[in-house]
Amino acid sequence: MAKPTGRTRFLGSFVDVLPEPTLPEVAFAGRSNVGKSSAINALIGASVARVAKTPGRTQALNLFVVDEAWIAVDLPGYGYAKVSKDMREGWKGLIEGYLGTRPTLRLVVCLVDPRVPPQEMDTGLLHGLANAGIPTLVVATKIDAFSRTRRADALRTLAAAHRIDPSTLIGFSAHEGIGKDEVMKAIRAAVK
Q: How far is it, in rounded angstroms, from Cα 31 to Cα 80?
């Protein structure tokens, strides 16, 4: 499969009924403020996912068709977003419903922030995906915050804290392009 050309179209925002599955899907999951929208934009080569200064702006499943070959699914962020408990519970149900029922889901790219202590919600998501047999790639965003010599240590620490295989963790920076090729290679392999 070719590298994304930036030919991306917005399919829609959905909170209940999703369109019929037609193409392989790659979902992007992560806590609010982890850099999910920036990562999606950097990976698909188009500014389609809304990057906001305030966490918690993605409140539905946003679907983007990439090169008419696969669909990027921007899931609502979870975590400390300043929204009501009812809304957070609604997002949780939306995310779990999507992950548990979508036949065209090929990969979940789980974004974590190596600059903050490992979060229980991230570990819970990773282990839930593993238990459900859903292929997962863990991407440590904002890795450029570490010096080159400290990046490997930060990734090893993160992998140990989440009890995951370090080989399934990729350091990534949307701004510097670090890890972009590795993440896209995993996505291409999943959607072929």
A: 8
